[in-house]
Amino acid sequence: MSEAKEKQKNHENSWMIRPCMMYKAEYDDCTSIKVRFNQYFIFGETLDCSQWKTDYANCYEWEKNKSEKAYDELILSEKQRRRERLSAHYQNNVWERREKPPENWNAPLPEWMQKEFENSYLHIKNEEMKQGKETSQLNSRCTIL
């Protein structure tokens, strides 16, 4: 197998790696005084944020020098983070999991719902984008109260 194909095969999980600045932002957020206070309030102690810093360093090393060790450690960390995030889902024994989607998952919406959708902001914007229009009959500013 060629070296390029071998590298590509070895890097099949590269989609898991976030942009490096995201790891830095997560670390900065985790160590901020506001979040530290919240951690103490919720957990009774502050959390260990060092993994975010390690991930940032590994990401930087991977991006700059293509270090295989940094790549492997970063992927391992992302897999662990994903395992922890989904642990409650996998431990759930209340809901029955589906093997396939319901038969009518992509059936057309009821007529009354389609009629309401015709005048919605999203529908009008979607039609404008399809036609390549720049201006809108709706005011482009949105205010959420």
From TrEMBL:
Gene Ontology CC: one annotated term: synaptic cleft
Where is this chain's protein located in or outside the cell? Synaptic cleft
- Pfam families to which the protein is assigned, alphabetical: PANTS-like
In terms of InterPro entries, this protein maps to:
Pants/Emi1-like
What family is this protein classified in? Belongs to the UPF0545 family.
The name under which this protein is listed is: Synaptic plasticity regulator PANTS
Q: Which organism is it from?
A: Camponotus floridanus
